[in-house]
Amino acid sequence: MTLVGGGALLVTGSLMWHVAAANDSFERLSGGLSGRLAIVLLAGLLMANAAVWAAAYALGPGFVVGTGSAVTPLGADYPKPPEFPLFAAVPAPGGGGVATWVAFAVPAAAGAAVALVVPVLLRSGA
């Protein structure tokens, strides 16, 4: 749970970092009120997938965005994704910068959480 929760924090942080690009994509994609509601609902439903992708990114192997692509902390190489606000959170193509290395705190936090919880569970007999 810590790993996926950390992935959700990574996605949220990246969306906040790229809020202008996400907002531009949202405005170009949605027409009226019904279109805006549909995009918000779809993005909300896809946040679980995005959290798992971000957790895979933080662990190192990353994820793919299309055929023959890879998005990892060491670098990203992918074709232009379709217009959708969540794609604004994907790191830019090229080498990973200092901000992408912050993602490695997620698996470290997950490991620390397991190290703290397992002894307590073993002592309680659960």
Describe the structure.
The radius of gyration is 17 Å and the shape is globular. With 126 residues, it is mainly alpha-helical. Helix content is 62%, strand content 6%.
**What does the largest sheet look like?**
3 strands, antiparallel
Rg: 17 Å
Number of strands: 3
Sketch the topology as an H/E string, one letter per element: HHHEEEHH
Structural class determined from secondary elements = mainly alpha
Q: Tell me the strand percentage band.
A: 5-15%
Share in helix: 55-70%
The first-to-last residue Cα distance is 18 Å
Which runs of at least 5 residues are low in confidence (pLDDT < 50)?
none
Number of domains as seen in the coordinates: 1
- Strand order in the largest sheet: 1-2-3
Task: Give the overall form.
Answer: globular
- Average predicted confidence as pLDDT: 88
Number of helices: 5
Write the layout of secondary structure elements.
Layout: H1 2-17, H2 19-29, H3 33-59, E1 70-72, E2 75-77, E3 94-95, H4 98-101, H5 105-124
Antiparallel strand pairs: 1-2, 2-3
Describe what is shown at a glance.
This protein has 126 residues and is mainly α.
Could you name the key traits of this structure?
3-stranded antiparallel beta sheet; 126 residues; mainly alpha; globular
